[in-house]
Amino acid sequence: MNRHMSIAVEGPIGVGKTELAKMLSQTFNARLILEPFEDNPFLEKFYKQPQRYAFQTQIHFLFERYRLMEQFKQQDLFHRMTISDFIYEKDRIFAYLNLTDPELVLYEKIWDLVIREPISFDLVIYLEARIDVLINRIKKRNRPFERDLSIGYLERVIKAYNEFFYRWDKSPLLVVHTSEIDFVKNPDDYERLVENIKQMKGGRQDFVPVSR
């Protein structure tokens, strides 16, 4: 049995975190907590009119992430591990990316009321990829609410994520470079990643694909 009792998979839009979280939950027979992006009624409107709908979109995500993390805190009698496709702190990445200064003041007040103790994970897996790879993956999955997502916005998201995880020190961090690998179609890629997860001892490590 893997010694990591809770694992979060994170990364920018389109990088494949939900798919990997699902695969890991099956491999480790873990409870799975997924973020239902499609349930946010403001998201599609945000991509079309970001300034008008940023605050509503953000607050909806904040409360939904709070609800899901409350589930995380509850003991699961059937699974020793929990896999999540997000961390609490990602909410602030997008808040500081999209909200105006007055909105951020209000957002921080709501954050302080809602998020008293962020969940600590035993391991965070950060997936990263080149922007051309992300654009291709987003187009392939063809989600209606992502059709108005701009390349400029995606570039800002990637930069914000990279800066955030460059400073990450709240748990061991495995950085996975996904541009040249495919966990779904290539079992060898996935098996090597699982082995890296099992061997993680702490600190920060990079999972770099082997040249083919």
What's the SSE blueprint?
Blueprint: E1 6-10, H1 17-27, E2 31-33, H2 43-48, H3 50-73, E3 82-84, H4 90-98, H5 101-114, E4 123-128, H6 131-141, H7 151-166, E5 173-177, H8 187-199, E6 204-207
Parallel strand pairs: 1-3, 1-4, 2-3, 4-5, 5-6
Helix pairs in contact: 3-4, 3-5, 4-7
What does this 3D model show about the protein?
It is a single chain. Helix 8 links the parallel strand 5 (173-177) and strand 6. The radius of gyration is 17 Å and the shape is globular. The longest helix is centred in the first third of the chain and has 24 residues, at 50-73. It is 49% helix and 12% strand. With 212 residues, it is of the alpha/beta class. Strands 2-3-1-4-5-6 form a 6-stranded parallel sheet, sandwiched between helices. It has one domain (6-207): 3-Layer(aba) Sandwich (Rossmann fold), CATH 3.40.50.
> Which word captures the global form?
globular
Report the β-strand fraction as a percent range: 5-15%
Number of strands: 6
The Cα radius of gyration reads: 17 Å
Strand order of the largest sheet: 2-3-1-4-5-6
Q: Ranges with pLDDT <50 over ≥5 residues?
A: none
CATH level-3 fold name: Rossmann fold
Structure class: alpha/beta
Biggest beta sheet summary: 6 strands, parallel
Query: How many structural domains in the coordinates?
Result: 1
Q: Which percent bin holds the helix content?
A: 40-55%
CATH A-level architecture: 3-Layer(aba) Sandwich
CATH superfamily: P-loop containing nucleotide triphosphate hydrolases
Q: What's the CATH C level?
A: Alpha Beta
H-E string: EHEHHEHHEHHEHE
